[in-house]
């Protein structure tokens, strides 16, 4: 009876702590959404921001956020995929491999402001790229690589060894076993990791303040020549993202409707991150059912 009583008390404490965490999360999300959703409209999502007058939107900042996200994934995913495959399938179990894994853990725990300062000193100043989209994308790559590499490695390591042995027993080479047998099975977990890391990158601000810049010059959406200064695709132009825009409004915003713009932008950012997380679960589960022929 004593053991059962202790078990019930421990279980109750665990449920109480989980409930507190859930309630705090719901309170924060509810507060942001209730204050911000009424200010969201199509005009707000597509019109450019205003610095001194009311009625501005977040169109340019929203585009910059997605553009930076795509560039970051294009740079970081091939590197993370190669590193994840090596660590999971090829790396021997020795001190070098352990050192690589420890390095990845250390990089994943670095504050984003440190990554931003590193990107500022190296890419903005030393390489003379200036405050630009490419500087921000490379800095976010350093920020994103540890999480993405670890996610890919875990997805590949979760594949049963029986699948590896089956591929090798059929005469497939190590590389073909990885690409034809292991990778397709691990694909749902890899896709989930990519989307979750995308949500983390999309909401990043500190690293971009020092690399992509805090200004939002006018973008000419009629000119898609990437070599023109005002083109949306020009990677050497400064780009204020949505998260940086929210920070800037709350620190130095002087437009009459600064509170409304900040609330609406914050709600859009929260909704985007929620969509990334829900999409990761949906796509991961869908791919898993398709690969395993489940219903």
Describe the secondary structure blueprint for this structure:
Blueprint: H1 2-36, H2 42-46, H3 59-90, H4 95-108, H5 112-126, H6 133-157, H7 161-169, H8 174-202, H9 206-209, H10 242-252, H11 258-291
Structure summary:
Keywords: Cell membrane, Membrane, Transmembrane, Transmembrane helix, Transport. The protein is mostly helical. It is built from eleven helices and no strands.
Explain what you see:
This protein is mainly alpha-helical and 295 residues long. It has one domain (40-291): MetI-like fold (Orthogonal Bundle). Helix content is 72%, strand content 0%. The protein is built from eleven helices and no strands. It has helices spanning 2-36, 42-46, 59-90, 95-108, 112-126, 133-157, 161-169, 174-202, 206-209, 242-252, 258-291. Helix 3 runs parallel beside helix 6, helix 3 (59-90) packs antiparallel against helix 8 (174-202) and helix 8 (174-202) packs antiparallel against helix 11. The protein starts with a helix and ends with a helix. The relative contact order is 0.14. The model has no long low-confidence stretch (mean pLDDT 87). It is found in: Cell membrane.
Q: Which fold name fills CATH's third level, the topology?
A: MetI-like fold
Fraction in helix: over 70%
Biggest sheet character: none
What's the average pLDDT? 87
What is the number of beta strands?
Answer: 0
Uncertain parts:
none
Main structural class: mainly alpha
Number of helices: 11
CATH architecture: Orthogonal Bundle
Strand content: under 5%
Span of the ends, CA to CA: 44 Å
CATH level 4 superfamily: MetI-like
Name the helix and strand elements from N-terminus to C-terminus, one letter apiece.
HHHHHHHHHHH
Output the CATH class name.
Mainly Alpha
Task: State the domain count.
Answer: 1
Protein name: Phosphate transport system permease protein PstA
Domain ABC transmembrane type-1: 62-280
Pfam families: BPD_transp_1
Family: Belongs to the binding-protein-dependent transport system permease family. CysTW subfamily.
């Amino acid at each position: 009876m004593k053991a059962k009583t202790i078990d019930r008390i421990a279980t109750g404490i665990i449920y109480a702590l989980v409930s507190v965490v859930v309630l705090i999360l719901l309170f924060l999300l509810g507060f942001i959404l209730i204050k911000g959703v009424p200010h969201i409209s199509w005009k707000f999502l597509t019109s450019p921001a205003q610095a001194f007058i009311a009625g501005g939107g977040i169109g340019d900042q929203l585009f910059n956020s997605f553009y930076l996200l795509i560039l970051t994934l294009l740079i970081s995913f091939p590197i993370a995929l190669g590193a994840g495959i090596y660590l999971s399938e090829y790396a021997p179990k020795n001190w070098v491999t352990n050192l690589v894994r420890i390095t990845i853990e250390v990089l994943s725990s670095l504050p984003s402001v440190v990554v931003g300062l590193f990107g500022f000193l190296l890419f903005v100043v030393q390489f003379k790229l200036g405050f630009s989209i490419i500087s921000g994308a490379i800095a976010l790559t350093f920020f994103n690589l540890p999480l993405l590499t670890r996610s890919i490695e875990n997805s590949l390591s979760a594949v049963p060894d029986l699948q590896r042995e089956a591929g090798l027993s059929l005469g497939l080479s190590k590389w073909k076993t990885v690409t034809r047998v292991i990778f397709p099975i691990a694909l749902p977990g890899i896709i989930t990791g990519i989307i979750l890391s995308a949500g983390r990158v999309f909401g990043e601000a500190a690293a971009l303040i020092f690399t992509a810049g805090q200004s939002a010059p006018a973008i000419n959406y009629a000119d898609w020549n990437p070599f023109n200064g005002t083109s949306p695709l020009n990677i050497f132009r400064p780009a204020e993202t949505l998260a940086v825009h929210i920070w800037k409004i709350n620190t130095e915003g002087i437009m009459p409707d600064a509170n409304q713009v900040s609330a609406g932008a914050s709600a859009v950012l929260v909704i985007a991150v929620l969509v990334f997380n829900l999409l990761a679960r949906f796509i991961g589960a869908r791919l898993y059912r398709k690969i395993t022929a489940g219903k």
